Known about the structure:
Chain B: Residues 20-250 form the ABC transporter domain. Chain B: InterPro entries: AAA+_ATPase, ABC_transporter-like_ATP-bd, ABC_transporter-like_CS, ABC_transpr_MalK-like, ABC_transpr_MalK/UgpC-like, Mo/tungstate-bd_C_term_dom, NA-bd_OB-fold, P-loop_NTPase. Chain B: Keywords: ATP-binding, Nucleotide-binding, Transport. Chain B: This is Carbohydrate ABC transporter ATP-binding protein (CUT1 family). Chain B: One of its GO terms (molecular function) is ATP hydrolysis activity. The structure holds two protein chains of two kinds. Chain A is mainly alpha-helical. Chain A has two domains: 2-56; 74-310, MetI-like (MetI-like fold, Orthogonal Bundle), CATH 1.10.3720. Chain A contains 14 helices and four strands. Chain A has helices at residues 2-8, 23-56, 74-82, 84-115, 122-134, 137-147, 154-161, 173-201, 205-213, 218-229, 231-246, 250-255, 267-277, 281-310, and strands at 10-12, 18-20, 59-61, 68-70. In chain A, strand 1 and strand 2 (18-20) form a beta hairpin. The longest helix of chain A is centred in the first third of the chain and has 34 residues, at 23-56. By secondary structure, chain B is an alpha+beta fold. Chain B folds into two domains: 9-239, Rossmann fold; 255-357, CATH 2.40.50.140. Chain B is built from ten helices and 19 strands. Chain B starts with 8 loop residues before the first helix and ends with a strand. Chain A binds chain B through residues 204, 206-207, 209-217, 220, 224-225, 228-229, 231, and chain B through 2, 5, 66-68, 88-90, 93-95, 97, 99, 101, 103-105, 114-115, 118-119, 162, 166.
Amino acid sequence: xxxxxxxxxxxxxxxxxxxxxxxxxxxxxxxxxxxxxxxxxxxxxxxxxxxxxxxxxxxxxxxxxxxxxxxxxxxxxxxxxxxxxxxxxxxxxxxxxxxxxxxxxxxxxxxxxxxxxxxxxxxxxxxxxxxxxxxxxxxxxxxxxxxxxxxxxxxxxxxxxxxxxxxxxxxxxxxxxxxxxxxxxxxxxxxxxxxxxxxxxxxxxxxxxxxxxxxxxxxxxxxxxxxxxxxxxxxxxxxxxxxxxxxxxxxxxxxxxxxxxxxxxxxxxxxxxxxxxxxxxxxxxxxxxxxxxxxxxxxxxxxxxxxxxxx
Amino acid sequence: xxxxxxxxxxxxxxxxxxxxxxxxxxxxxxxxxxxxxxxxxxxxxxxxxxxxxxxxxxxxxxxxxxxxxxxxxxxxxxxxxxxxxxxxxxxxxxxxxxxxxxxxxxxxxxxxxxxxxxxxxxxxxxxxxxxxxxxxxxxxxxxxxxxxxxxxxxxxxxxxxxxxxxxxxxxxxxxxxxxxxxxxxxxxxxxxxxxxxxxxxxxxxxxxxxxxxxxxxxxxxxxxxxxxxxxxxxxxxxxxxxxxxxxxxxxxxxxxxxxxxxxxxxxxxxxxxxxxxxxxxxxxxxxxxxxxxxxxxxxxxxxxxxxxxxxxxxxxxxxxxxxxxxxxxxxxxxxxxxxxxxxxxxxxxxxxxxxxxxxx
Lengths: 311, 360
């Protein structure tokens, strides 16, 4: 490391003479070298495809015939103006996000509040709630498909014991949406729980002691001290969860394939269908760009509210 | 309406009653006994300092007064009331934490008024109390700042201000100065002493710094391993320590202690060793190099110049190390053979159990 830095101090200026760089320049050069692997990776694997997708989105491109014609904004107009499917799908995505995000974050926070301080068995509970996060999505979906079956499903059999006639969860549009949201929350809540636990553990315990001494109730401590101090964590968690919920694909693909009656057909799955089932690459690319813009807008909105909140 | 802090108790309580009393108080965490049978009375308006080495239980004792730790056995009383089961906020105490525990997202004024706000005090009264406290502590200009915008000393003052606004009967300080640099510590020490003089409340102060203890306290409680070793005024502890631990803990630099049977020949006889004494203690500031060559023979090993005086490390005949405070700008070179004399009144004798033996 030291020798690498020393080596940077002299650079051949092309005329055979070694050029001495100032310390600042040398440091800047070192820094650039350090960030270059991720920068190059970002450019090649993220920024490149993003530009390509924007380019594709302006083509009428049939993957089977290989024909591609430039159509300008036609694909966007198609999605936004002419194709009613798009709005249906977007609505589904927003319903999914509106159901998943508060449920996931609320539950994660509750679990974190219960599990952030050490007690006997705390690790056991943390593992229980985190385990689904690292479980294979395929296994998770298969198990839940069994549990949620209409007649022989374990959930309905349990409900039957209580005299409740459960619906065919994955076959009725509204129930199917609720079912994919809840099963997704159960699968992913552990991740946000861990993030909230880390944030809670970084709050000094003296705040709690001081507030208790001053007569604050548990709820007041949470509302006036803990929750405001969790704001940075909440921002990150909400961005990740909102964007994650918009991008949900595997879960839908494995549990409902967008059905029934397109009741769970969300944006990411719709894009997949358009691109790889109907081979409408141009249209799918336009949809992908729209999804990117929505996710970016929601993220900026959250950052804006957080800033406004702080000011 | 939530009950407000017992703000009026300080004025209405009987001054003859102790402000605070521990009766045979013990505390254990699992199998570990942290406090082992503490009895103590603190008078109204007294400044009492708990001092002792790390892990002696002084902070635990303080947290037991506040109610942040419960009591395993025995009773803690504030005024005439046993408070073992009284929640922290209703004990009439306020605490200044070592970390200050200022809420980072609230301004100075909001931090100071937090306790009043959660007690649903009217906003106008909160404002006036915060204004009073901030005037006392010269924080007026900082009320709209956030803790991150303050210096260490200012944060410390805000923490004290937050304690003052609740008008508590007892102030608790948990090593409040240990995060400050040396100069500021001396300054804040003086401010806390002045504050006590002005407010007149009972204050309990925890520190491991015996200089802080000596300068601030009306009475010092020396703790070791969860037990009280001695309670007394700074002077009492310095002049008449009950045992070897207190003798060595109070006073800086610490007292020299020698085994009597290892003293240079003839010295024991000169000291007039009482019966049962096995150790003798002499404070470095009571020993001096005798220009006439009388007293305990010793060899100078090292000298540390500190400005006004020097700390001289010597070796007595027989090998025992000895430290003295030498006044003046010059000290003899290393290896010099010298003789040490001392004021006889300042000799401390200890028996085989390290308990002091008082002569006469």
